[in-house]
Write a structure and sequence with these properties.
single chain; 62 residues; alpha+beta; Signal recognition particle alu RNA binding heterodimer, srp9/1; 1 helix; 5 strands
Length: 62
Protein backbone atom coordinates (compact mmCIF):
# COMPACT_ATOMS: atom_id res chain seq x y z
CA UNK A 1 0.00 0.00 0.00
CA UNK A 2 1.29 3.48 -0.87
CA UNK A 3 2.17 6.19 1.56
CA UNK A 4 0.07 8.91 -0.11
CA UNK A 5 -2.12 11.25 1.84
CA UNK A 6 -5.59 10.02 2.61
CA UNK A 7 -8.67 12.04 3.38
CA UNK A 8 -11.64 10.95 5.43
CA UNK A 9 -15.06 12.00 4.11
CA UNK A 10 -17.94 12.48 6.53
CA UNK A 11 -21.53 13.14 5.47
CA UNK A 12 -23.87 15.59 7.17
CA UNK A 13 -27.40 16.80 6.46
CA UNK A 14 -26.28 20.40 7.15
CA UNK A 15 -22.83 21.66 6.13
CA UNK A 16 -23.38 25.19 7.47
CA UNK A 17 -24.43 23.92 10.91
CA UNK A 18 -21.43 21.58 10.98
CA UNK A 19 -19.12 24.46 10.04
CA UNK A 20 -20.52 26.68 12.83
CA UNK A 21 -19.99 23.92 15.38
CA UNK A 22 -16.44 23.24 14.20
CA UNK A 23 -15.56 26.96 14.19
CA UNK A 24 -16.83 27.26 17.76
CA UNK A 25 -14.51 24.37 18.66
CA UNK A 26 -11.51 26.18 17.11
CA UNK A 27 -11.00 23.48 14.44
CA UNK A 28 -8.37 24.30 11.78
CA UNK A 29 -10.17 24.94 8.45
CA UNK A 30 -8.41 24.26 5.15
CA UNK A 31 -11.31 25.58 3.05
CA UNK A 32 -12.61 29.12 3.49
CA UNK A 33 -15.76 27.66 5.05
CA UNK A 34 -18.60 25.89 3.29
CA UNK A 35 -17.88 25.86 -0.44
CA UNK A 36 -19.70 24.50 -3.48
CA UNK A 37 -17.78 21.51 -4.85
CA UNK A 38 -18.59 20.94 -8.52
CA UNK A 39 -18.25 17.38 -9.85
CA UNK A 40 -19.36 17.08 -13.46
CA UNK A 41 -23.05 18.02 -13.68
CA UNK A 42 -23.56 17.64 -9.94
CA UNK A 43 -22.46 19.90 -7.12
CA UNK A 44 -22.51 19.64 -3.37
CA UNK A 45 -21.64 21.74 -0.33
CA UNK A 46 -18.50 20.74 1.50
CA UNK A 47 -15.82 21.97 3.88
CA UNK A 48 -12.32 20.77 4.56
CA UNK A 49 -10.72 20.73 8.01
CA UNK A 50 -7.69 19.15 9.69
CA UNK A 51 -7.77 17.00 12.80
CA UNK A 52 -5.24 17.62 15.61
CA UNK A 53 -2.75 15.27 13.91
CA UNK A 54 -3.00 17.20 10.63
CA UNK A 55 -5.12 14.70 8.70
CA UNK A 56 -7.59 16.21 6.23
CA UNK A 57 -11.29 15.57 6.81
CA UNK A 58 -13.84 16.52 4.17
CA UNK A 59 -17.38 17.10 5.37
CA UNK A 60 -20.00 16.86 2.62
CA UNK A 61 -23.65 17.78 2.76
CA UNK A 62 -25.85 14.94 1.52
Amino acid sequence: MGHGRQRQVLLTPGAKAAARELQAGKVNFVSSGVVMNQTGQMGFKALLVRDPDGHAIEIEEK
